[in-house]
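FYI - complex with 2-acetamido-2-deoxy-beta-D-glucopyranose, inputs then prediction.
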Amino acid sequence: MVPVLLFPLLFLGPAVAQETQDGLYSLTYYSIGISRPNEGFPSFQATGYLNDQAFLHYDSESEKAEPLGPWKHVKGMVDWEEVSKTQKARGDFFLKNLKDIMDLYKDTGNHTMQEKYGCKIRNNNYCGAFWTIAYDGQDYIKFDTEIPAWIPLQPKALNTKVKWETEGSVWRAKSSLEEECTQKLQKYLQYSRTFLDRQGTHCSLCHAPLH
Ligand SMILES: *[C@@H]1O[C@H](CO)[C@@H](O)[C@H](O)[C@H]1NC(C)=O
């Protein structure tokens, strides 16, 4: 009995006590890569959301992740140096993947890749994740954490699935969503939960099915 009770207590941290809404929260990153951005425009950008509130923005021109809105005044929630570094690495990888997809289609010129990546918690427990990538505005491939596997959403995406599952581990992708993302969300909520509850924000991704 004791270990069962202890585990959630260790896991939850200090902010659990005052949960108001039905305990649903999400952390989502929307990213976009452009093969031929206009002069002075970033080729990669990412925006982080807590529920439906944008709190973080990164772009490849400044190479800096920066807080948005009220999060400009929150100290200690995000290690901005660290996030800037990881987003830079992600941006480089993202644009390389965009090039690979363009090669599959023998496309040249200006193309875009968009990504929606994130996780949800309910009452402080993991309750789902999503990772979908679109090419030129059309859903291209998504990650299924249950199998786990990349699921092609267009015929050409089968090549990408095989490549990504050969070069990278599906288990690492799964743990990045289920563990790292969830832990980040739990940490961010220690600083942001009261604000999100007070604003009546919604975990928009908790109800709508994600394709
Ligand atoms: C490439 O596409 C992006 C996104 O649609 C657009 O903002 C940008 O202006 C385009 N670049 C050029 C050089 O036309």
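Residues 1-20 have pLDDT under 50 and may be disordered. The two ends are 39 Å apart (CA to CA).
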